[in-house]
Amino acid sequence: MSVQATDLRQRLIRNFNTAPLERFQREPLYDTSFAALAPGTAAKKLGASIDIMPPGGRGCPYHYHYTQEEMFIVLEGEGTLRVAGEHLPIVAGDVIFIPPGPEYPHQILNTSKAPLKYLSLSTMEYPEICEYPDSGKYLAKAEAKPGAFRVVQRKEASVDYWDGEP
Fold first, then answer.
1. Cβ neighbours of residue 2 under 8 Å, at least 6 residues apart?
2. What angle do CA 61, 135, 98 make, to 5 degrees?
3. pLDDT of 106-116, one tens digit each?
4. 136 to each of 62, 69, 163, how far by Cα in Å?
5. Is residue 43 in a domain?
């Protein structure tokens, strides 16, 4: 390949089968191995990761986004999409669309006896607010890069708009 082709390949292509996985585990419920695919690419508004959950694993808490839209593509296995208070079965080949807003809180669960492998895609729009209905928390963040504004707290901890102002 030419130098230009090599550079283009590095900025535009990722292979989820060879991406190095990181494991996140928080017992007893949360366990997933994942690789973020978009960092280092030319992507400005898209995020992507490969996620592999063992039987019984959950990738993240039940939540919804105010800004970002998500898509999940089930590649292998089966599990459950917990969404809007319901539990929907998901299987390999399913493409899941989650728009922003409180109508679609969601969480993927591996309720099977085999690994569940899926692609996660997101419109990486900022600023972003996520709410977590099970715990009453919210997350506010300005952007994805390290050191950017990011806070997680409960609504009850909110202060009055004029608190601390002269």
1. none
2. 40
3. 999 999 999 99
4. 11, 21, 22
5. yes
The CA angle 10-13-17, to the nearest 5 degrees, is 115
How far is the CA of 21 from the CAs of 49, 106, 117, in angstroms?
A: 10, 23, 12
Distance (Å, whole) CA 62 – CA 150: 19
In a domain, 153, yes or no: no
Summarised one tens digit per residue, pLDDT across range 32-89 is 999 999 999 999 999 999 999 999 999 899 999 999 999 999 999 999 999 999 999 9
Q: Which residues contact 32 (CB under 8 A, 6 or more apart)?
A: 23, 24, 25, 51, 52, 53, 57, 58, 59
Q: pTM of the full predicted structure?
A: 0.92
Give CA–CA dist 77/71, Å, rounded. Answer: 17
Nearest residue to 145 via CA among 65, 66, 47? 47
Domain assignment of residue 108, yes or no = yes
Instruction: Give per-residue pLDDT as tens, 156-166.
Output: 888 888 998 99
Q: Which domain holds residue 117?
A: 18-125
Domain count along the chain: 1
pLDDT for res 122: 97
CATH no. for residue 69?
Answer: 2.60.120.10
Whether residue 133 is contained in a domain is answered as: no
